[in-house]
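User: Some background: our group keeps a shared notebook of sequences we're curious about, and every so often someone picks one and asks for a predicted structure to add to the entry. Today it's my turn. The entry only has the sequence so far, pasted here. Could you supply the structure so I can complete it?
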Amino acid sequence: MVIGKFHFALLLLLLLPGAAAQAGNALENHPSPYLAMHGGDPVAWRDWGEAAVNEAKESGKLLFISSGYFSCHWCHVMQRESYQDPEVAALLNRWYVPVKIDRELEPALDAWLIAFTETTEGTAGWPLNVFLTPDGYPLVGMTYVPRDDFHERLGRLHDFWNEERERAVAFSRSIVERMRAANRASLPQSLPVGDALVTVFLEQAMSLADELQGGFGDQNKFPMSPRLHVLLAIQQHQPSRELHDFLVLTLDQMANRGLRDQIAGGFFRYTVDPGWETPHYEKMLYNQAQLASLYLHAADALNRPGYLDVARDTLDFVLSQMRGESGAYIASLSAVDERGEEGGPYLWSEDALKALLTDREWKLAQQWWEFPFGTQLPGLALPFATEKRGNLDEAGIEAVRRKLLAERQQRLPPRDTKELAGWNGLLLKALAEASGRLGDARYATAADALAQWLVTLWDGERLQRSGAGSGQGSASLADYLYVADGLRAWGQVADRQRYLEAAETLVAAAWRLFYGGNGWRLGERQLIPGLDGEAALQDGPMPAPSALAIAHGEPEQREAALRMSIAPVLENPFWYASHAWQLMDFQAENSDDTHER
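Assistant: Of course. Here's the predicted structure to add to the notebook entry:
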């Protein structure tokens, strides 16, 4: 009888909401601002690692991995609706092993889960929520789900796992094997020759091009910097009026409409519409770095000197607004302000502008900027650049800008203070290029200070993801190559052998740690199945790091890796733009060698 009472009490305890959360929330005071903000959730979040994986295996529960990042608007919404809800938390704690990751600290895991969700659902994004079997095979993936739907799915998936476990395991393993087969390398007898790849790349790019509004696709508009870099390079080598006009249209739209902050500088992450009008208001360091570099190159490639001002404006924003405590630069500025309003600091009502500015200043502002009230939210406007600014009072415009900026200082967006190695490497390259192209000593000073910080992250065996003792994840393939690329660029501009040698060391380490018979791995750790290599990595918002490894590798390494990647690159060169460019470059080099011989 005593034993029966004990079992009844234990069962009652386990069924109480939150009772299974005795492990506690491991994210309180985490060095990642994104993970730390989940430290007060009633969900008993685990940090990613062997302990969480082993717990799932031992308990037989499904792993639940939720991935996001600090400046993601819908990540905040799902936290508020679901992860701070006691009933949702009780189900997660009782039936699952809940893990929260910062996608900027676990890029390899995040990329794998994104690929799985795209494969099974047709689309993916953040917040990303994936349920995995205890052995680590992904089973179900989803993005933002409203609270009631999410609560219902938790119950249905739990029932399915208990009632159809063998079927669930078989399904998850079959998907992973299919994805592995798609990534598996096949070695052709010889590399392709001639201009066929350039032709296919251009055909694929222009089939996706929006020739009326610029950019690619007809819905959301992303900068897609890696593809635009390759198109600029092709335009320089094989000039085309059609390509020239498309690039100018795209770069003008990105610089003059809603993707760019016309008051303070800097680019938002993307727009939610095809006309570049309404942005998601995150400002990411990697976008600033790549777009500054893109506009520097475009100024020469397209003979548009005004693009130098866009590059300068973007870098000035980074130097003034994104500098971190250590001297490196922070990851992002949030899409929501401290009141939780998306785009809050950037949107203006007409009444607020008239109250802030004199009549003369308001007329001047209307000549310099366009204020499309109601485009983003009723009665509010995000300033665009006007098409014809003419000979306006530049001193007066600057005074208006300072007034607007001072007012915006009252509603600054929260900052994700992570100082990530790879993203700072991208910035170093942009600063190096700006120093050489613009001759501004400020950029040289900033580049040298950043290079000094980056070399401290190498401990002789591994590259750290961030500053010493930060505990912010393991360095990925992207970190190694973006840092190496930045150090190489600055070493060449400044004639600093120290940085050139550091770049060579990092490239060699990247080949040793992340490349093998199955291709490229984004991360070193492989805690779950599937992270075992790809023949080529697609470009995302940033260039494929495997393509940079090929660019800086030894001749034998380059050819072997290009042979391995040829099948996916030839099939979809636009999505493997950086790899396609390396193949084009390799072909050109060998063609030159043949002619010389």
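Suggested note for the entry: The radius of gyration is 25 Å. Residues 50 and 527 are 7 Å apart (CA to CA).
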